[in-house]
Amino acid sequence: METLQNLSEEDTKKRYIEPALSKVGWDFESIKMEYGVKAKDYEFSEGKIDIKTGKRDKSTIKKADYVLFHNGIILAVLEAKAYKYEDSEGIEQAKDYAKALKAPFAFSSSGKGFVKYTLTKDFKGVEKENLPLNAFPSPGELYEAYKKWQNLTNDNLLQTHCDLSQTTPRYYQNNAINATLIAAQKGQNRILLVLATGTGKTLITYQIAHRLFNQTLPNGKKIEKILYLADRNELINTDTTRTFKSFAKGIYKIENRNFKSGYSLYFGIYQQFISGSEENGDKVEHYKALSKDFFDLIFIDECHRGSARADSTWREILEYFSSALQIGMTATPKYNKEQRESQEIGELEEREDDNIDYFGEPVYQYSLQQGIEDGYLAPFSVVELLSNVVQEGYTPELGKLDEEGKEIPQETFNSPDFNRTIYLKPQIRFVAKEVSKFLHHTLKNPYAKTIIFCEDQRHALLMKDALQDENKQEVAKDSNYITRITSDDDKGKALLDNFKSVSKRYPVIATTSQLLSTGVDTQMVQVIVIDKIVRDKSLFKQMIGRGTRLNEVLESRGKTHFYVLDFKGIAREFLNDPDFDGEIEFIGTDEVKKREKKPENTDKENETESNGLPPDIKDPPIKHTIDGEEIQVYMQDKSVIILRNVNGVLTPITQSLESFSGEKLQNTKAFESYLDTLRTGDKATREELLAMLEQKGIFIQELGQMDKFKNCDEFDILLSLAKGSPALSRTQRAKKANRFLAELEPKARELLELLLEKYAQGGINELDSSVFVNEPFASKYNLTTIAQIFKEYGGVNAILQNLKNALYEEVS
After folding, report:
1. pLDDT at position 671, please?
2. DSSP secondary structure of 294-336
3. Torsions phi, psi of 87, nearest 5?
4. Which portions of the chain are predicted below pLDDT 50?
5. DSSP label at residue 771
6. Residue 95 C-beta-side C-alpha neighbours within 13 Å
7. For residues 76 and 80, what is the distance between their CA atoms, to the nearest angstrom?
8. Is 525 within 8 Å of 451 (Cβ atoms)?
9. pLDDT value of residue 509
10. Angle, CA of 249, 255 and 261, to the nearest 5°
């Protein structure tokens, strides 16, 4: 017995627990192969980032000893302890993990037997049972118990599996997918999922569509035609459609209200289904051209934006196709607690503008707070910067004239009036100055991507002008340092992909009104500026959500958290739900400075002027870790600083940025494959390649800021590094397609010549079919005409690939 008391936890697992599980059919290796997860030592969080240090707190990583899967569903969590403990020692941890994973059963053992807890449906209560070591339930037995717990008499929809060819869903994504399928299996026709912005709702949508496609619902309806419905074209882009990999050959984006048959997955915006309005007498219900049962499954993206409103024409679409299974996705459910309570005691008859009312209670919810706690979302702090006129109002002096020479009424204008009733330029300059000061002096990072939300497009233009006055040095380096990205600004919209890009430095600051508020994946954003009055909590949280993105690549580029600069004093009003948002930190700029301050070298004996750096360097470095060494790239003199630990002191060794990256590139055998990926890969694949090259020490983004490479394609930067030859500019590269263009019919040639002009300005991302919806194409051609012009060349995608082959002949 004394020997047994000395058994470690690992020895107890191997000698007692795992044999007991294996004996009844639990095979952890097959679970890993089938579901893409490690069922033993199952980690299901990344660890919360400490916003003060930018480091992950590894003690917060959630790691279960055993997670028991069947049919892709987590049935139970088992925690093990060393033999000397009671079998119940680990049950509280098992219970907590089971709640998070939405598993009804929690087990613990120290090798003598098992303690089993069955959780209640609300995960608040439990039933306890003690089991002998030889009585652990088999996979089949536990799954039958699960079905009983869920009140499932049929499990046809649960027999399908996720597509793991791209990625394995995170635990909360898996929770959302399974909760949806279970609700559908029980006959629920309207389903709501609530997940914080940045948690991968598009991926969840795809996996649900993948698993339900060609399946038969309890009402006998077979899922054959699926609609992904959004309210703006920006929410249906190539990044969205690319996610739906298994539908690649059956995808159709509805254009010009042309509802074609013969497709499996349709993407459309509400305006394709309804145009005009009853008020103007020009309302047209285009959706009635389709039969009511045309769609079998409808996903409503960002369903907080109007689809749930009882008086909304958009809701007509959902009610017309009411026979379809409808799944709403949102980060911000419209749920008015006081209104709901009044409804329930009979004081109110209906709840308008409440998607809970339309879809019912969410079948699954993953909050902003939980995403931050798990380390999947970036933490943030709010800095209030309220001017005296915002706090006290503004009363113009008697006889004050506006820009048109009209006298301004002598009344007091308050914050909601600014940039609506009156454009107050001193307040705009105040915001521009404070934002610039925050980036340059508080963060000490003028390249931190920033979105400024303005009242309207004119306000966004005035803000852009004021920011340019405050950042003349940065604008002189690159005119796109600041841009306006609004629906009517074609130049700004053309730069949206660059602003969203993880690898592109410019634009840095974007002023906008509505365009960037929802559904735009601005991963590198580190500062959100609120300079507009927002009356809708859902919209406000969507705006904040532009900064919550977090992943390994972003962390490697220095994004671990973000800041909200509130110039209207509205954040306290909207970030007031501790259950969903957590406790929000409101701090001042002094605290930000303290937090962002880098450790100083106090070793006077080894300290040199500017720590050995060139004295003219003013820009903050971009830091990388290459081969275990920290490398700082300073753009002022195009040098790389490699810091090595020499006798306890970080010692800089300077090399040319070009020669450093070139040496790294020349030492790889994969050079040709890099070029081929740039030529043939889609945007996401190219982004992944550039991020991978950066990790190897080949700094394409920084090189692209050098004068000799400034107008060059990534393809030509790589060629120049490897071959030592001068790099072609994009204009020069475009000329390589002349022979190919000469063989085309005039209309096709004209289209591609326009496309090459955009390529010369913006790079290879412009060589994509998605750009045809923008200017200069939109005013001259519709997509049907473009498709017809390219039909004889094999279609749009085929001719674009042939164009790339001609451009990049080095690897054709």
Report:
1. 80
2. S-SEEEETTGGGTTT-TT-HHHHHHHHTTTSEEEEEESS----
3. -60, -25
4. 1, 307-311, 348-353, 599-618, 637
5. G
6. 18
7. 13
8. yes
9. 96
10. 50
